[in-house]
């Protein structure tokens, strides 16, 4: 082993084998990386623009201020929507549907799941860390509700539903995209999210809204009582009854087959090993 | 009887093999040589060398078997006493696995330490060129009875070819090569109403946009795959159906066969854009291989392995507002085969 007079240990010793020019380049690039990491960390990680002095209680006025700063570039100043992408705040090109008449239900759903605000209008909305505070969400919901008459926030009764009926309805209407145990999947053009950890209100809201590419199920197709059953079933999938013990993610026969094959291979190898020892 | 003769022959063979093994090595009266060696035979009348007793191994085997019995008894107790639950199932599994594992371990110890094994070598016989030549000559002369060789070869080729063809003939029964009537039949005719999964007739006013429905032929057999439909409503101005289908979608309500034309799974996915300017257009998708069909253009394939569009069922709204078929499908239902593009009867 080479011994050098360096007091620094192995992380730096290997650099002594480099040419002087390369060593300098390495040092400079390390500095640049560290510097940019610091700068990036110090920059605002919160993309929300807030008024300097927020009132203590949510109000339509607060909602209006937040809306103008965070939502108007895609949804229009009066909530009328922006049909084709046009330059908005900063470098963002905004486009979005009209919010007139969508009601408190839609605003509540999109805001508390983090689907909105959407950083990139071409991206699929998905559950994100919610950057608005609950008070701000309430204020924005009140504002959107004031834009036109629309459905209010639903209050499903999961306990009032029938689990077996919920399973039947979920299999009929939802399992094609969401998988029979609500583990999620794909549809051409979008990811379908798993429903574990989704609260009852959001489940009901999604069914009635049909966010993004999801179909919209009105009360005529799925009644309130049926929705309660579906909500009960989806909540049940958080802790399904795995009678066999290991659920393997509740994904279905392909992972289960994989596990069975692996177990079979392990058993076969064990038998071979045992017999080899005996023959020796 | 033949069976008796076979049994006698087999037992004589077995006896004779045993007798051959016991003979000493060296030239035999008929001139052949036996090479089998029993060099380890102890010579005191035993056939197998004695092995010192291994009491510990015997006790171990006994203990393992008793433990296996205990596990099995545990299975019975758990089954009888405990309520069905995840833990119970796992305990049952542990008991059976433990019992079988102990039996396996006991057998392994038995084979390793208690059963005597020995290896006996036997050399390959030395090649005898004269005998080989004799056998070759024997084969040549043995065919002396055949004088018309070409006749026999020709006849054998004919027989073999005909037999092979006969063996392949049942392949014709695999597909509907001649009788295609079972694939043509659908339960749909003009005036047959659509019902939902519960059997209730569907009203046109109940079909909404931005969602999808399952429908069946009223009164059809439950396993009739041609009766299964997927129903969507679109704005009539958005439709661009193939020519001749202008009146197939009253009020923009479209009915397609739910059976995917790729491999026969049911269409279970529907995507609809919340904001059409930026999102993909409405489509019916099959969950098996993601064949994607565009309902606005007659369920043409826009993605995936399906080879033809979904067959469309023409609809009409009767006097009471219920949905009914206005005729039969545009094409035959189900995965593709060579007669599929003809109109069903």
Structure description:
The complex is a heterodimer of chains A (280) and B (345). Chain A has 280 residues and is mainly alpha-helical. Among the domains of chain A are: 60-146, Orthogonal Bundle (Cytochrome Bc1 Complex, Chain D, domain 2), CATH 1.10.760; 158-236, Cytochrome c-like domain (Cytochrome Bc1 Complex, Chain D, domain 2, Orthogonal Bundle). Chain A is built from eleven helices and four strands. Chain A has helices at residues 10-13, 20-42, 60-70, 72-75, 103-113, 134-146, 163-173, 175-178, 200-209, 224-236, 253-279; strands at residues 82-87, 93-96, 185-187, 190-192. Chain A has a two-stranded antiparallel sheet. A two-stranded antiparallel ribbon of chain A has the order 3-4. The two termini of chain A are 43 Å apart. The mean pLDDT of chain A is 88. Chain B contains six helices and 13 strands. Chain B has helices at 2-22, 55-81, 86-114, 129-142, 149-168, 181-184, and strands at 26-27, 33-34, 194-195, 212-217, 229-233, 253-257, 269-271, 283-285, 292-294, 300-303, 312-313, 315-317, 323-325. Chain B is of the alpha+beta class and 345 residues long. The model of chain B is unreliable at 31-37 (pLDDT under 50). Chain B starts with a helix and ends in a 20-residue tail after the last strand. In chain B, the strands form four sheets. In chain B, strands 3-4-5-6-11 form a five-stranded antiparallel beta sheet, with no helix packed on it. A four-stranded antiparallel beta sheet of chain B has the order 7-8-9-10, with no helix packed on it. A two-stranded antiparallel ribbon of chain B has the order 1-2. Among the domains of chain B are: 51-119; 184-325, 3-layer Sandwich (Rieske Iron-sulfur Protein). The radius of gyration of chain B is 39 Å and the shape is flat. The longest helix of chain B is centred in the first third of the chain and has 29 residues, at 86-114. Classes of the chains: A mainly alpha (280), B alpha+beta (345). Chain A binds chain B through residues 83-85, 95-97, 121-122, 172, 175-177, 185-190, 210-218, 220-221, 241-245, 274, 277-278, and chain B through 84-86, 89-90, 93, 108, 111-112, 197, 206, 208, 210-214, 268-275, 277-280, 283, 285, 287, 290, 292, 303-304.
